[in-house]
Amino acid sequence: xxxxxxxxxxxxxxxxxxxxxxxxxxxxxxxxxxxxxxxxxxxxxxxxxxxxxxxxxxxxxxxxxxxxxxxxxxxxxxxxxxxxxxxxxxxxxxxxxxxxxxxxxxxxxxxxxxxxxxxxxxxxxxxxxxxxxxxxxxxxxxxxxxxxxxxxxxxxxxxxxxxxxxxxxxxxxxxxxxxxxxxxxxxxxxxxxxxxxxxxxxxxxxxxxxxxxxxxxxxxxxxxxxxxxxxxxxxxxxxxxxxxxxxxxxxxxxxx
Length: 256
Description:
Elements: E1 5-8, H1 18-31, H2 40-46, H3 52-63, H4 65-73, H5 78-94, H6 104-113, E2 117-121, H7 126-134, E3 147-149, H8 162-171, E4 178-182, H9 185-193, E5 198-201, E6 216-218, E7 230-233, H10 243-254
Helix pairs in contact: 1-5, 3-4, 3-5, 5-7
């Protein structure tokens, strides 16, 4: 099938946001006088769980079991904690301190100019996504995306395919007519559940994950003066990922 739309994950794909998320969680814990601190190692493990509230619950069960019963029995305490964490994160990214990853802005602008349809399928919610765009492409950039499916819009978060199924419904397209841009195993599983081919750009926190099922795995989208590194898949020996290369990957995947 002809490629009709590009669908982007957010965290780790559009930008290396996970350090900002980790910083926001740790700031939240300090505000609450909790002796919790999520190190890089701990947060890497927690990222296997999608969703901030879900990560807090997982942390309690596996890292702070003495307090798990209290917080889980009083589960109404966790959602407002996550709301505050999100507010801290949004203030961080609105400032522009978290840039888009190499090649992201260039590819989005090229695709938009060519009339390629754009969408977002993410576990994060709309407000943090808007804050990221405000600090990078500008406040109105979210309107460039014809469909935006966020974690609070679907029953099941990634690795379930719900967000991608919602995007396909909004676009009135079939999975093979699209290309998904992801950075994690959960992202691959989610996109492939909707029969969408996937390109992986490995992020700081997803290195070493299982990327089986991706059309290609690269370190980033690259720039003409800063080539990407192909880790596996169809390389075609380019310097950067442009719309022509995306179409080649898509066609190669469609042909088996």
